Write a sequence for this structure.
């Protein structure tokens, strides 16, 4: 029961849903997620922490960069079903389509180091 409560709490925020959809089929650096959401790094960190605690996302560290991806096939059935449902329901939503376009046309073309430097200046 606790697992389901954590998953549903994690899904109860638009920004966290946007992160999950953005991670579909790709891995993103935290700087890329910050650029997408246009939120303070501390706010994005909190959102990612909630997704991570619910086991909806996985993380890896590469040097000074943290990368996130959707939980893989080894995740619990509850997590896999929740991710499948969210991605299928929201895949054609206008905001998700805008996010995808922004990721592909702008954010992913910029190196994480450059994004981080821009965020630290702004």
């Amino acid at each position: 029961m606790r697992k389901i409560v954590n998953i549903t709490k994690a899904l109860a925020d638009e920004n966290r849903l946007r992160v999950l959809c953005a991670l579909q089929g790709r891995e993103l650096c935290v700087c890329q997620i910050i650029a997408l959401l246009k939120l303070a790094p501390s706010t994005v960190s909190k959102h990612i922490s909630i997704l991570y605690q619910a086991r909806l996302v996985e993380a890896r560290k590469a040097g000074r960069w943290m990368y996130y991806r959707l939980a893989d096939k080894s995740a619990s059935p509850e997590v896999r079903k929740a991710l499948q449902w969210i991605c299928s329901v929201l895949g054609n939503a206008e905001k998700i389509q805008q996010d995808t376009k922004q990721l592909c046309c702008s954010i992913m073309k910029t190196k994480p180091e450059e994004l981080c430097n821009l965020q630290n200046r702004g």
